[in-house]
Design goal:
Layout (H helix, E strand, L loop, with lengths): L8 E6 L4 H11 L5 E7 L10 E4 L2 E6 L11 E4 L3 H8 L2 H4 L2 E4 L21 H4 L4 E3 L3 H14 L4 E10 L5 H16 L31 H14 L5 E8 L6 E9 L5 H10 L3 E4 L9 H4 L5 E9 L5 E8 L3 H15 L4
Parallel strand pairs: 1-2, 1-5, 2-4, 5-6, 6-7, 8-9, 11-12
Antiparallel strand pairs: 3-4, 8-10, 10-13, 12-13
Helix pairs in contact: 1-10, 5-7, 5-10
């Protein structure tokens, strides 16, 4: 490699149909990562040349994944079903490539680090890591919020009510919301295949099975992931997911208790200083909304409230796109860190 030249990488994407896979493909296509080659694999491909995609305005064949095809690669993004992701992710060290799982396939594996870029990515500097778990979008958002707080104050307690978009259930969720909305507006019948209830123009207090305490596996996963990312934080934390009739963007009402009893301006300054946030001050003429946030690469935060009922207690409104900053941008920054590009 000549002096001053940038190393280029052989990259592959396994799984091409999920929303997260499409978002990372779009990012890579926009030249935000130095590519020597880009290959696509999908376990649903049964016959060679039966499935195509487009990358940088050129057609690309999607192949069926096979271990020998991964030899010589530098980086693999895993965006297929979890069984496929685990199969090929575990080959990373053996085959000598780095792998980033986009579908939370290794959340329960203590040997696979869960990384939020800019929060705990120093792990990649301390040891050679071949496989990384890209966490749930809410884990990414709240890890940034909580890290900003604990670096400046003493956080005692945090709670979050999370409004979840239907795109958390991939295209099936988007299609069901769209079909139900159209059917209701045209006074026709509709199906309830995915959510079990009407989701259009409605809120549901959860759509997944819960344990004896009323928490779903996804809620427990997010809580556990945040604990891993922040390294056993000293504050208590819990959350509850509510299914909302919106296509994209997670919105969170976050309640925090600090040891310090601050003026709002002191709290606002913390979020103004971090580049990952787009902060909306009290006097802003704009409001944080899903429409404004969708497709953006920042975590929107604002509409802060100081609760006079308890010293040191505050309310924050947080919103962020689940496919950009909540997935692909974090994964891309992890990749850049892995190869010393950040």
């Amino acid at each position: 490699m000549s002096k001053g030249s940038v190393r280029q990488f052989r990259v592959a994407l396994i799984g091409t149909d999920s929303l997260r896979s499409q978002e990372i493909k779009n990012l890579l296509s926009s030249s935000q990562f130095p590519l020597k080659s880009m290959e696509f694999y999908d376990p649903t491909v049964a016959e060679e040349y039966s499935k195509l995609t487009e990358f940088k305005a050129e057609p690309k064949v999607i192949h069926h994944p096979d271990p020998y095809l991964l030899e010589g690669l530098d980086l693999v993004f895993l965006a297929a079903d979890q069984v496929t992701n685990r199969k090929f992710g575990r080959l990373a060290r053996e085959k000598g490539f780095r792998a980033i799982d986009l579908e939370e396939s290794f959340t329960a594996d203590p040997g696979v680090p869960t990384i939020v870029a800019g929060v705990n990515d120093e792990i990649l500097n301390r040891k050679e890591v071949y496989l990384v778990s890209n966490p749930h979008p809410v884990t990414i958002f709240l890890s940034h919020v909580f890290q900003a707080l604990v670096k400046n104050f003493h956080l005692k307690k945090a709670l979050a009510m999370v409004l979840q978009p239907v795109s958390a259930y991939e295209n099936e969720g988007i299609e069901e919301l769209a079909e139900q909305s159209y059917a209701l507006l045209s006074s026709s019948s509709f199906s309830r295949k995915l959510f079990g209830e009407q989701i259009a123009f409605n809120l549901l207090p959860g759509v997944e099975k819960v344990d004896k305490d009323g928490f779903s596996d996804k809620e427990k996963q997010i809580i556990q992931e945040i604990g891993k990312v922040l390294g056993k934080p000293e504050f208590t934390f819990s959350l509850s997911l509510v299914q909302a009739p919106v296509f994209h963007v997670y919105s969170l009402m976050v309640y925090i208790e600090l040891v310090e009893d601050l003026e709002l301006a002191e709290l606002e300054n913390v979020f103004k200083k971090k580049a990952v946030f787009k902060f909306f001050p009290q006097d802003s003429t704009q409001r944080i909304s899903n429409v404004r946030v969708a497709g953006q690469g920042k975590i929107f935060i604002g509409h802060l409230k100081k609760d006079q009922s308890l010293p040191g207690s505050y309310w924050l409104w947080v919103a962020a796109d689940n496919l950009t900053v909540g997935s692909a941008l974090n994964a891309l920054e992890i990749a850049r860190k892995m190869f010393g590009l950040s």
